[in-house]
Structures are given as C-alpha cells and as structure tokens.
Design a protein that fits this description.
Elements lengths: L3 E5 L4 H12 L3 E6 L6 H10 L4 E5 L5 H7 L5 E4 L6 H6 L1 H22 L3 E7 L22 H19 L4 E6 L2 E2 L12 H10 L5 E3 L5 E2 L2 E2 H13 L8 E5 L5 E2 H13 L11 E3 L14 H7 L7 H16 L1
Helix pairs in contact: 1-8, 5-6, 7-9, 7-11, 9-11
Length: 325
C-alpha cells in the first residue's frame, strides 16, 4: 500500500529536499505551500517528473480549511512551513507568531482530526536561548532571545500537550543552522552560507556580524533529510513524543566558515582567494555559540550523519557554482 506524506512548506529549502527524497522512495507526496518564502522552481522538476505521485496544494497554514484539505488521506506529516529568521521576527513579531504558532496549531488540530499516524515538525536550536551550557542537550534550555525562538518553543509545548491529550505520535527536530542546495541566497533574511557564497562569487566582501568568533553547528541538508526519515518511520516506542537535536555535532566559527568558503570557491575562481572579509556590528538576538549533543538521536533513532560541515560545504559550494552563475 502506498503511503501518503504531507510536506508543509514543501517548496522551501528543506521542504523541497524532503519532497524529492520521499518521491525517490515511491511515497505519494503532497506539498502545501503559500510561496511566501518557498519557490515554485524548487518543485517544478518534481511536478514534471512525478505527475502521478506528487501533488501541490497552494495554501496557507494560517487558514484552517487549507490545513484540513492538505491532510485528507495523509499517513504522515512533515511540518516544515514556518517563517524563519531571528531578524525577521524582531522586525515583525506578529506575522512570525501567526505563522509559526497559529499555523502550527492549525496543522496539529487538522492532523488530529484526520487521524494522521505521525506528525514530525521542524523545531529549532533557538529554543536553547540564553543557556550557555555546551554542548546543547535536549532537556537543558534557557530563556528565548527573540520572538522567533519563542514561537519555536511554543511549538514544542503544544506538541507535548497534544501527544498526551490526544494520544498523537509527534516528534520535533531541533534544526541547527541547516545549509545546502536550494537554500536561497537572495532577500533581506538570507542565511549566512548562501549569502556569503553569492557575495564571494560576485567578488564582493562578505560582512561578518561581530568579530567572527561566534560559532555554529552547521548541518548539511542530507543529514536533516535522514533525521526526518528516521523520525517518520521509527517503530521504537521510546523514540516518540520528544524532541531531538538535528545536527552534525561539531562547531565552526564564522571566521573558519569564510575561510572554507574561500578555499572551495577558489577552486572555481582563483581571484576569490584575495577578497577581503569585513566585520560589522553583532546582531541582536544572536546566541554566541551553538553545538549539539546528538547522542539522543543516535541512541533512539539510529541517527548517523553522513556529512561533516566541510564535506557538506564542498557539496553546497559546487551546487551554488552550477546554479547561481
């Protein structure tokens, strides 16, 4: 029997990679997206390649009727739809709240009513907030430092209550600085890696916020896809109704990151080696250091990330070189 998977935000960076992988495994896939941040070009090849297995619903998780329509006959939900970016949430907390909290609640209720087998959702490392404890362990968090972080923590609280109150199977994945193919380098809230790649390819100087010694557990997209699949398919009862760090388990400073980017891009364009890296002010709401403990995911889900930060970055740089020129 073919199983149906709904990917909300399926035209986005992470969502489109999930759709592509699920389709390659012969799942029936429904993509729900309003194209606020997702792009039709991310999924157009999939719509053409899998006309009988891939369905697009243009809709908004803030509209409960759209959520109800999307979950009809669905076995699994991979909920990726959200408004990301700490600076975006600081500039416009109301919209972030409406999408990330009200939209999340709509999806939970719709999934509950439709009898969805399992609900896997994108949580965030921002939930660790002002906790200085390293590495980050799932049950030790601090106070949120941004409206975005609040929304993602509220998601976890709702998920916990719904799993207990309505006997739902729900798993949250706390993403740590995900990067890779299809991550958008354009726009005011572009993530650091695609933004810096675009700058360097244009022979412009990237600007690091602060002195560059802030560090992150940069996580390649294929590791994130693996975690979603493990969370969706696990038959380990102990693995359900909890949250997992989704990362590689190593941290890289922004200074190291830019050095790696220059190293890999110089292979395509030797002039990039001489581009100066600039430094600006620290960004409000940023945590200084982020490093995941992934022991829980390894133990309960069998997680085994295949790509280190450097290996993933090399793949990502090649993709950008082939697609941004």
């Amino acid at each position: 029997m073919k199983q149906n998977v709904l990917v909300t935000g399926g035209a986005g960076f992470i969502g489109s990679n999930l759709c592509e992988y699920l389709l390659s495994l012969n799942f029936q896939v429904i993509c729900l997206d309003n194209f606020a941040t997702g792009k039709i070009e991310n999924i157009l090849p999939l719509l053409n390649m899998y006309p009988d297995k891939f369905k697009l619903i243009v809709g908004d998780i803030r509209n409960f009727s759209d959520c109800q329509k999307a979950v009809e006959g669905v076995d699994y939900v991979l909920h990726e739809a959200a408004l990301g970016s700490v600076p975006r949430s600081i500039k416009d907390p109301i919209t972030s709240n409406n999408v990330n909290i009200s939209g999340f609640l709509n999806m939970l209720v719709a999934a509950r009513d439709a009898g969805v087998k399992r609900f896997v959702y994108a949580a965030s490392s921002s939930t660790y907030g002002d906790s200085t404890f390293l590495p980050k362990v799932e049950d030790v968090i601090g106070k949120p430092l941004s409206p975005y972080a609040i929304t993602k923590y509220v998601n976890e609280l709702y998920a916990d209550v719904f799993s207990k109150t309505y006997d739902m199977e729900i798993i949250g994945l706390r993403y740590f600085n995900v990067f890779g193919r299809r991550q958008d380098p354009n726009g005011a809230y572009a993530a650091v890696i695609p933004l810096f790649v675009k700058k360097l390819m244009a022979h412009e100087s990237p600007i690091i916020n602060g002195d560059g010694e802030y560090s992150r557990d940069f996580t390649y997209i294929d590791n994130v896809v693996q975690m979603n699949m493990l969370a969706m398919t696990t038959d380990n009862p102990e693995a359900l109704n909890t949250v997992y760090n989704t990362a590689f388990g190593e941290r890289t400073t922004l200074n190291q990151l830019t050095a790696y980017l220059k190293e890999f891009l110089t292979a395509f364009d030797p002039e990039i080696e001489n581009i100066e890296i600039l430094h600006g002010l620290e960004r409000v709401g940023d945590i200084p250091h982020s490093l995941a403990d992934i022991h829980k995911a390894k133990t309960l889900l069998g997680y085994n990330p295949k790509f280190s930060m450097r290996e993933g970055l090399k793949e990502a740089v090649k993709w950008y070189w082939d697609n941004l020129k």
